[in-house]
Write a structure and sequence with these properties.
Blueprint lengths: L9 E2 L11 E2 L2 H152 L3 H18 L1
Antiparallel strand pairs: 1-2
Keywords: Coiled coil
């Protein structure tokens, strides 16, 4: 039971605000109440002071332990984050190096293919040029051969024509000079035909 409960409380109606009551506590009563409260604090300190100090020590140790654990956890987290950052950085650098290497290889392959294509084009151009030259040479040689054969054939035909013409003239002169009969003339033409066939 509080010490305030046993005290008389006097109400001063003169100083109260309109429409309300304001209690007025006597000064001696207030001093007695503070004294009792101080006595209660002493009794509480005697009864529970050791436990409170022990609890404060435990709370202090717990706080220190929590701070230590937090610092340790922070350091461990920082280490792991640093390790993870380095790992990711190394992986990214490895991937970048691999990409650069593959890109370099592809560029070299494209350069090689381009050079090979260029060499093939040059080789084809040379072969086409050689083929054109060979074709032109063969065509020229063939034309010369045809021209020579044509000239030779014309010469042979002219020679045979002259021989036949000379033979006819000779035979005609013989016919006129000898006045042979029809049977002799037929034999002569038969012999002429045989000679012509043998020369062809």
């Amino acid at each position: 039971m509080s010490s305030l409960e046993g005290e008389n409380v006097h109400y001063n109606f003169a100083d109260s605000a309109p429409g309300g009551l304001v209690p007025s506590i006597n000064q001696p009563t207030l001093s007695n109440n503070f004294g009792e409260i101080s006595s209660l604090d002493k009794v509480r300190d005697i009864l529970f002071g050791g436990q409170m100090r022990e609890l404060e020590k435990k709370f202090t140790r717990l706080e220190e332990r929590l701070l230590k654990e937090c610092n340790s956890l922070r350091d461990e987290t920082k280490k792991r984050l640093d390790y993870l950052e380095n790992y990711i950085k190394n992986e990214v650098e490895a991937v970048n190096d691999q990409v650069k290497s593959e890109q370099s290889k592809r560029e070299e392959a494209l350069t090689t293919l381009s050079e090979e294509q260029k060499n093939i084009n040059n080789s084809l151009e040379r072969k086409f040029s050689q083929f054109d030259e060979q074709t032109a040479t063969k065509t020229r040689e063939l034309r010369e051969q045809i021209l020579n054969q044509s000239q030779s054939l014309q010469d042979d035909i002219r020679q045979k024509y002259e021989e036949i013409l000379a033979l006819l003239q000779r035979e005609s002169q013989e016919i006129r000079s000898e006045k042979t009969d029809r049977s002799t003339l037929a034999a002569m033409f038969t012999e002429l035909a045989i000679r012509l066939n043998s020369r062809q």
